[in-house]
């Protein structure tokens, strides 16, 4: 099946199912919340969204609505969302999943982006650093491609420490998946990042959407025709994505970035005790170090060592 046929089939499906194409697979017990500009699946055990999904366009990026900073509980969450008290004095930022800067096209969208259901506990260095840069580059992709669909959230697998009276889980990792389903090219990309400061180039966090599905257990873009879904989610070509961010010059070539894609067979080390994974040579390792693939370590609930930052 050639690319032109894929595009025509995809566009015809958009006309038939314009909304269903945008959301991940939904289970019977999932609590799905639909707001004006985005939808989310609320995870009550973790008091945050498992995913937030929205469409971002070139015109929406250029909106002029001012940031409202009106953080507040989400009245649509039947079980009650996290509250401001959960984050107070915790040392963690109220990190947006759907960024406020993506909602500048509407005062309603901007205000609703500050619901606590759209927040997750992020380290300050992560939220104000690498995560902010990822958010900006996603906006760049919306401008370059005209329209994209974004699904983003925390990786809610494994054991977590928690904050606040509602015991909000503190994730070790976050992800974004981006789908470009408009002509002239349809493509997808995933990103998985540890909840810590980093000055690594964004390309180094790029993975296939299939890889994000494996790590999160979420089935993205399930309503696409099977052939198209497989084509988009199993392929990653960094040459189709721009990684140049205004005001940030650290870049690598697509070829170099693809040479060691994170999460695709990368080896880290664990010990018989503890739940952190490490680089080889980390002072926290002992002679009992056990090699393991990074993606397997994540699946088993291990988090990154903050000393060696693997």
The fraction of residues assigned to DSSP E strands is: 15-25%
Query: Low-confidence stretches at least 5 residues in length (pLDDT < 50)?
Result: 3-21, 247-264
CATH superfamily of the largest domain: Extracellular Endonuclease, subunit A
CATH architecture annotation of the largest domain: 3-Layer(aba) Sandwich
**Mean pLDDT metric:** 85
- CA distance, first residue to last residue: 41 Å
Strand line-up of the largest beta sheet = 1-2-3-6-9-10-11
Shape: globular
E-strand count: 15
- Helix-strand category: alpha+beta
Specify Rg, calculated over alpha carbons: 19 Å
Helical content (DSSP H or I, runs of 4+): 25-40%
The first-level CATH class name of the largest domain:
Alpha Beta
N-to-C series of helices and strands: HEEEHHEHEHEEEEEEHHHEEEHE
Total tally of structural domains: 2
User: In CATH terms, what is the fold-level topology of the largest domain?
Assistant: Extracellular Endonuclease, Chain A
Q: How would a crystallographer describe the biggest sheet?
A: 7 strands, antiparallel
What descriptive keywords fit this protein?
seven-stranded antiparallel sheet; disordered N terminus; Extracellular Endonuclease, Chain A; 310 residues; two-stranded antiparallel sheet
At a glance:
The protein is an alpha+beta fold. It has nine helices and 15 strands.
Describe the structure.
The protein is an alpha+beta fold. The protein folds into 2 domains: 3-261, Extracellular Endonuclease, subunit A (Extracellular Endonuclease, Chain A, 3-Layer(aba) Sandwich); 265-310, no CATH class. The protein is built from 9 helices and 15 strands. The chain has helices at residues 3-16, 58-61, 84-87, 107-112, 124-145, 209-216, 226-234, 254-259, 294-299, and strands spanning 31-34, 39-43, 48-57, 93-96, 119-122, 147-154, 162-163, 168-169, 173-180, 187-194, 206-207, 267-270, 276-277, 290-293, 303-304. The strands form 5 sheets. Strands 1-2-3-6-9-10-11 form a 7-stranded antiparallel beta sheet. Strand 1 (31-34) and strand 2 (39-43) form a beta hairpin. The termini are far apart. The model is unreliable at 3-21 and 247-264 (pLDDT under 50).
